[in-house]
Amino acid sequence: MSGRVELSPQYIAQLIREEQDVPVQVVAVDTLPTSAKNPVNKATFDTFLQGTVYKASTLTQLQEQTDALVMRLQQANIVAAAVPIIETSRSSVSGAGENPLPVSLTLRYQPKSHFTAKTGTNITNSGQGDAYLTFQKRGLLGLDETVTLDHRRDTGTNAGSNVSVLFPYVVPGNAYLSGKIDMFDAWKFLGVHDRGAAANLHTCYTPKSGKWNHSVTLDCIERVFHNSAYALPIKDTSTLVSEQLLVQEGKSLSSSLRWCASRDARDSTIAPATGHMVKVDTQISAAPETATPKFIKASCESNWVRSWLHNDFLTLSATGRAGYIHNLDPTRSYIHFADKFQSGGPNDVRSFAPMGLGPRSLGQPLGGDAMVAWGLSLFSRVPVGPMLNSGFRLHAFLNGGRLVNHNGMGLGDLARTLAQEHSTSVGLGLVLRHPMARFELNFAVPVTTHDGDMVRKGFQFGLGFEFL
Length: 468
Known about the structure:
Elements: E1 5-6, H1 9-18, E2 24-33, H2 42-50, H3 59-75, E3 79-88, E4 101-111, E5 115-123, E6 129-138, E7 146-154, E8 159-167, E9 177-187, E10 192-203, E11 213-225, H4 243-246, E12 250-264, E13 275-287, E14 292-308, E15 314-327, E16 360-361, E17 364-365, E18 370-381, E19 392-404, H5 411-418, E20 423-433, E21 438-448, E22 458-464
Parallel strand pairs: 2-4
Antiparallel strand pairs: 1-3, 3-4, 5-6, 6-7, 7-8, 8-9, 9-10, 10-11, 11-12, 12-13, 13-14, 14-15, 15-18, 16-17, 18-19, 19-20, 20-21, 21-22
C-alpha cells in the first residue's frame, strides 16, 4: 500500500517512545501562510530549514528540530504562530530496515504584520515600571528584518529613544546566528546622557540543546555628565558637591568590545524550579580618538536551583556574582562612575537602597571596581486551599555582598578584602511568579552594614526578571 499518510501527534509520540532511533529523511517542506499578506521570504525559510529540520536523521531529532524551527521563527519576529504537520509516503515504519523513512513537512504559519504601533507600560529590572511608545516595520530592506523605533520613560528619571534593526540570520544556512544594530539617545537618572551606536552578533540556542550562547557587541558612545542633574535614590538636602564627581563632568568619547557567554540549563529563566545557569561577561573599553585601551571589565554569575517534595513544594536557589575592573592606564585616565559596578536594591542585595552599597562621597554613590554579591533563597508553595497551586510562593532569604575600589592592590589582598565584612540582610516575603516577570514583597532587615550604606529596613517591593 502506498500514498501519503499523515502522522497524528499521538502516533508520532508513540513512535518516539517505541522506536526513537528510526532513521528519517526530510524530502520536502511546504510553507503555507494563513494570509497572502506579509509572507516570509524563501531565502529566510531556506536558512531556517537548513539549520533545523533538514539536519534531523532520526525520529526524535525530527521532533526536536521541528520545535526548534517554530521557536526560532517566533524568536526572530517573523511569524506570530506556526503549526507543523509531518507526513510520510509509507503507511508503516515496520520492516523499513536500514533505509530512512521519507517524510515531508507542511508548515502552516501566521506571518507577522509588516507594521505595528503600540504604547503602554512595561517592566524593568530596576524595580520600576516604564511607559513606552514603539513602532515596528518588518521587511523594510527585504530581508525579513525588524526595524523598531522605541521611546520610553520610566517612573524614575530615565528616558531614551532607540532605533534598532534586528536581522533574523546573518549567515545563510545558519539559523542560530542573528545580528542587531542599535542607535540610541538615552538619559540616565545618574545625570548621564549617552548617545551612540552598537552592532551585535548573538547565537540563539535553546536551553535543551545544552550549548553555550555567545554575544559579541561593538559600540561607540558619546557621554555627557552634569553633576547638577545627578538624582539620588534618597532625598539629600546637602548643597555640597563631590569633587570625585566634579572631575568627571563634561563630554567624553568611548568605544568598547564586549563578549558574553552563557549556558542556561534551568527549566525557566524567571521562576526556575531546577537546573543551573552560568554567565561570563568581558568588556574592553578604549578611547576612539587615540585607539588607546582604557580598561577591562569582567564579571561572572552562577545560579543553582533545586526542588523537593510533590509538585516542587520546596525550592532552594543559590546565586553568586563577582566582578573586577582593571584600569589599563591609571596615570592618564580614570574609570567613569557610570562604567563601574553598583550594588544594592530590591532585586540585588535586599534591605539596601538601589546603589546602596560601596564607596560614596557626600552621600552620592561612586560605584566600585571590584565586587561580590550572593543570595540564598528558599521558596515554598502557600499551603492554603487554592493558593497551593497558584503562582504565589512564600520566600525566605539571606543576602550579602561587598563593593570596593581596589586602587591597584594585589589580587590576593583583594580576594581577602572581598571575602570579609560583607553587608548582609535577611528577610521573609511573598513572591508572585508570573510568566512575564517576578514580583516580590519582602520584609527585610540588615544584619551587618558599613558606614555610608544606604539601608532600607522594612518592606521592600521588587519587580523584574533577574534577582539575586
